[in-house]
Write a structure and sequence with these properties.
Blueprint (H helix, E strand, L loop, with lengths): L5 H12 L14 E2 L7 E2 L7 E4 L1 H5 L7 H4 L5 E4 L8 E4 L14 E4 L2 E2 L17 E8 L12 E7 L9 E7 L3 E11 L4 E12 L9 E13 L5 E14 L13 H8 L13 E17 L2 E18 L2 E5 L3 E14 L2 E22 L2 E3 L9 E4 L4 E23 L5 E25 L4 E27 L4 E11 L4 H6 L7 E12 L3 E13 L2 E6 L2 E6 L2 E16 L2 E16 L1 E4 L2 E4 L11 E11 L2 E10 L2 E2 L7 E2 L2 E13 L2 E8 L7 E6 L5 E5 L4 E9 L2
Parallel strand pairs: 6-9
Antiparallel strand pairs: 1-2, 3-8, 4-5, 6-7, 8-9, 10-11, 10-42, 11-12, 12-13, 13-14, 14-15, 15-16, 16-17, 16-18, 17-19, 18-19, 19-22, 20-21, 22-23, 23-24, 24-25, 25-26, 26-27, 27-30, 28-29, 30-31, 31-34, 32-33, 34-35, 35-38, 36-37, 38-39, 39-42, 40-41
Length: 702
């Protein structure tokens, strides 16, 4: 229940916060979350910092990328190089070392892991137009998150039994944007349902050199209601995705002050990197089946899943190809028991990934320096055609995990979660390297020959969390959790001596809920031992363990209904992330980085939004900012960040028909979403997208 004097306080909070979160608007009635605890609870009763992005928010987005849904959540940093399925995602510093893809963060869809057993996540087979809601649980201590210290993101697709989800969508925009989606489901009698989805998306992204993207996705879902209220749901999907990955820019005279020209024109005509034809071209089959059975106080939820994929993946110095399809097979067997004072949940996870014939090739078409001391050095790729076979690799990763959590409710005010995950990950790799790219000379040189590697990580993740209901409006929570982080296969191959980082999170929080307002605040300290950090040196990316890092922060998000169909809100995050014990090898010397800040993570992230609904109309204006951050581990230079990048959505809906306009980067700001500096002193910039305009028609079948 909201007291009369709460409205002025929240108006002051919203104004003081500065810009805002698109996700914060979601809770007029408190949302339900299952990702943090594997138990359905209102978000106010979950003793962890979480955010839920619901259907109303998703309907207002063009949803080409999960960035469209998650930008503006405090503590979550996300952007995309080309607006397709790629995403640079960081939660409270976790994921910072990933040059592409998502690492250190577990990503699931309908309870099925999208992350590989080594914690690497690709999103090329996620149909972003078939999403019902997204839950974000920040930090360690998640029963779903096997070997992931950054938390978990769970994507819930539209249920096969939900006939109201049937819709047709057609959208067009600038830069060659096209967006087509059909979802149609029907019942086969009283106990069965089918649903078909077909989606095609493309973007030419003419504002930047080599930045095209397209994907075609299809899926078939089947639902069967069994006797006794049991439900079996199954799905098979197929995706083809083609994505060019544009290179970065420097701002040197040799390349014509490329970044300055982008800031003036909003056009990136090339890249200052030699590797001009990076991309990822994939084909993915994904199958999963889940059963839910309830017998009195017991609920059993077995899940099985299988995905197999092929990709052609030109990157810096090398071209990757899976000559034989990679496969990933797993199961999660979950059981719950409700008793008089709470509930007990436990289960077993078993997953294996096999990459039987992964190959690396030299680039087949390159330009080289002729004559002089640099003769033979590669200066540019001319295509992404593969050349001489450079490496053959056969790897296998096995993850086994068990988890248990008791949620004790001694009375109506208290919830105590006491839990544990224990995961074991075993890597096996056999490799034969014929050639490798030598960054110092800029040439392909003789490889290391045959090698093999076997490594096992044991990762305990205990959790103690308490929620206390202060009154009808406010809940306080406290938690102490720990999680180990699985190094990815590529990181271990780069540095076989890597150890698994251990993150231990201490957090206090406050959650407020009223009939037309919401408040979420968290204060946390997350020291990490053996943090894996990324080092750039002349184009070479390497990974090494830091001794210790200290991550401290504060997050705040608020929304308020203003009457007359209006609502407003804001978010703010403060991050103080420092190395406590870390030496970095530069030019043959170990340099002490203790006391230095981690690069790229801004100290301040903030935003505001204002929304309105009236009759058949709705509108929303939001603006987000990233503050300044350091470019390198040595803290030699800062980037000023970017401010008030504003997005607008406007929609009209009547009798099942709707027309919506989305304008991202309304003011057409030209900025770098990522700036970094390597140990040689070279600074590069990855451009943020200029203004994009998309018009979408949707018809909801009645």
């Amino acid at each position: 229940m909201q007291s009369a004097n709460m409205r002025p306080l929240f108006l002051l909070t919203v104004v003081a916060l500065g810009p805002a979160t698109a996700a914060a608007q979601e809770v007029r009635l408190d949302k339900i979350s299952v990702t943090a605890t594997r138990e359905a609870r209102s978000t106010a009763d979950v003793p962890q910092a979480i955010a839920v992005v619901g259907q109303e928010t998703l309907d207002e987005k063009k949803m080409f990328n999960i960035k469209d849904a998650l930008q503006g959540i405090p503590g979550v940093l996300i952007d995309s190089k080309n607006g397709g399925f790629d995403a640079r995602l960081i939660i409270r510093g976790a994921g910072l070392k990933a040059p592409y893809g998502i690492r250190e963060i577990m990503v699931l869809r309908d309870g099925v892991p999208l992350s590989d057993p080594d914690s690497f996540t690709r999103l090329d087979f996620v149909d972003t137009l078939d999403i019902e809601r997204i839950e974000v649980a920040k930090g360690p201590g998640n029963l779903f998150a096997s070997g992931s210290s950054g938390g978990a993101i769970q994507i819930f697709s539209k249920s096969v039994f939900e006939q109201r989800a049937n819709s047709l969508r057609v959208g067009y925009g600038n830069d060659g944007t096209e967006n087509y989606h059909l979802r149609y489901g029907w019942k086969l009698g009283d106990d069965q349902a089918l649903a078909v989805t077909l989606t095609h998306r493309k973007m030419d992204n003419d504002w930047r050199y080599r930045n095209r993207f397209d994907t075609t996705q299809s899926s078939l879902k089947h639902g069967l209601a069994l006797s006794g209220g049991d439900v079996l749901e199954s799905e098979i999907s197929y995706s083809e995705a083609n994505m060019q990955l544009p290179g970065a820019m420097d701002n040197g005279a040799a390349n014509g002050y490329m970044f300055d020209r982008f800031r003036d024109s909003g056009k990136q005509t090339g890249t200052s990197e030699a590797w001009k034809h990076s991309g990822r071209y994939s084909k993915v089959w994904f199958l999963n089946s889940k059963l839910e059975m309830q017998r009195g106080a017991f609920t059993f939820k077995p899940r099985v899943y299988f995905n197999t994929w092929y990709h052609y993946h030109p990157v810096t110095g090398i071209i990757n190809e899976t000559a034989s399809w990679v496969w990933n097979l797993g199961t999660d067997l979950e059981a719950q028991y409700k008793h008089d004072q709470g509930s007990l949940v436990g289960g077993l996870t078993l997953r294996q990934e096999r990459q039987p014939d992964s190959r690396k090739y030299q680039y087949g078409d390159v330009a080289r320096i002729v004559g002089g001391p640099q003769a033979g050095r590669i200066t540019a790729t001319l295509s992404d055609r593969k050349g001489v076979l450079a490496e053959v690799d056969d790897s296998k990763t096995l993850l086994t995990g068990v988890y248990v959590q008791e949620s004790w409710r001694p009375d109506a005010r208290w919830i105590v979660d006491l839990g544990m995950r224990y995961d074991t990950v075993r890597f096996e790799d056999r490799n034969q390297q014929f050639w490798k790219f030598d960054y110092a000379s800029g040439r392909y040189v003789t490889g290391a020959g045959r090698s093999s590697l076997t490594k096992t990580f044991d990762l305990p993740a205990p959790k103690l969390a308490v929620s206390y209901k202060l009154n009808e409006s406010f809940n306080a929570f406290a938690m102490v959790t720990q999680a180990g982080q699985i190094p990815s296969t590529s990181e271990i191959s780069n540095n076989p001596r890597l150890e698994a980082p251990i993150a231990r999170n201490h957090e206090l929080g406050l959650k407020g809920r009223g009939s037309d307002w919401q408040l979420d605040a968290s204060l946390y300290s997350n020291p990490v031992r053996k943090e894996i950090v990324q080092q750039y040196n002349g184009g070479v990316t390497s990974y090494l363990n830091a001794g210790r890092t200290a991550k401290k922060g504060f997050e705040l998000a608020a929304t308020l209904g203003l009457g007359g169909g209006w609502e407003g809100g804001g978010h703010y995050a403060y991050a103080d992330y420092k190395y406590q014990d870390f030496t970095e090898l530069v030019g043959g010397a170990n340099l002490d980085r203790a006391g230095k800040y981690l690069p790229f993570v801004p100290k301040r992230q903030y935003g505001v939004f204002m929304g309105w609904k009236g009759g058949s109309w709705r509108a929303r204006l939001s603006a987000n900012s990233w503050g300044e951050y350091w470019l390198d581990n040595a803290n030699t230079e800062k980037y000023q960040g970017w401010e008030w990048v504003t997005n607008l959505s406007l929609a009209y809906e009547r009798n099942g028909h709707s027309l919506s306009l989305n304008v991202d980067n309304l003011a057409d700001k030209h900025y770098a979403f990522e700036t970094k500096k390597d140990t040689s002193g070279r600074v590069t910039y990855t451009a943020g997208a200029p203004r994009s305009v998309n018009l979408t028609y949707r018809y909801d079948f009645q």
